[in-house]
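Worked example 2:
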Amino acid sequence: MNKDDLLKDDLFQDDVKIMEKERKTDQDDESSGILTPEKVTLSTLTTCQESLFSRKKPLSQKQDEKWAQEWGVPEEKVFLARLNRKGCMNELLFIFCEAKGITEERFRTLFFEATENCSVKIDITPFAINPERAGEHFTQWWMTNAHPIAREAQTTLLELLQPREILSETPSEMSFSSFANQNQQWHEGNGDNFVFFRDHPAVHGKPNILIQRKQNSGNCYIHGPIVLHHYLMCRTNQDPQPSIDIRKFILSNLRVESLSKLITHVGGGSSREILKMLLEPDSAIFVASIPDEVCRNLHRYGPGLITNFNIEHKFRSEQVSYSGKFTSPVQGSHSMVCVGYRKQIIHSKETIFFLMQNWWENKQFVECDSDYLEESCASVWFTRKQHVTLPAFSSTTMAEYAEAEQLDGDDYALEEWRK
């Protein structure tokens, strides 16, 4: 971007004025009016540009610094994106996408994936709203168009960037106590049952163990690993442990491919890949499939990550107990956390029911027997790592309860992680 282009930007004008005033403190005349290339020295302009990325930042650049930190990108990228997108419709959305490197080509691919089943073909040509960016048909369509698919993406990204205030305490109707009251078998001391956050010796009596997260749609593949990570830290640390802030993790740490899919609601992600990001390389991840083995691991290693759990249509109801075979069509895959089990004699046979922590408003906890878990084709992953710590890149929260808005996507299996 050349000198003339920079000088057209209002915020950059403010920056230059600040620098000119500092340069001329010993003179009576101060910089005033609209600055032109003739009125601004090259030295001032260079100094102003350099000040954006040094300890002495003009006041108008504080927002860039805040966004850069929250989005996990260099401040220079935010600054240039802000200049490039000045005055655009939905300006903040454009700034974020450009700073994060979500390209026109990527938006093009996502457009065709998202609209391939539309009954009416969408003509993308008219959606170059900004004539100066005629080559960005797909980026502008996603960020400005009123089509329901594009509008959903805009809403998702806006709620990520400007979240509304939410509760920090778990609503009583969503609590584990409410679940146990309606499902008496899970009461403490009632039969042969075990719940990690209530019964495990490593966390018994510690505060702030149980955390709950609500999703309005999807992104289970992020919720599951982050909640599991919190429990693993609680198991190995004495002090109250924070949890990774899901919204900030998405903005700052998701790879561009996963982030763009999440925003546009095209496809899902892998909970195992996210867990791998959160744990250290020597964490010795392993999968358990035999019911008794899962029970033993819950005692020995703590909760397990349930991945690639096939969801039948019936599972989306408010029912919270499942057994046997599926009786309705499969409608996607899911990730949860296995936090407990109970054993019950049914028809003279011992049956194991697993307690799974979920992220849906009407289904925060759910149980299924070992036959149903097998029917779902899910895997339960544990780590032998004895001391789990926070990743260096993470932003945290001490909130007992939090919501993640409009983030969609199934949990996919990545076979290469088994190697």
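Residues 65 and 269 are 30 Å apart (CA to CA). The longest strand covers residues 330-346.
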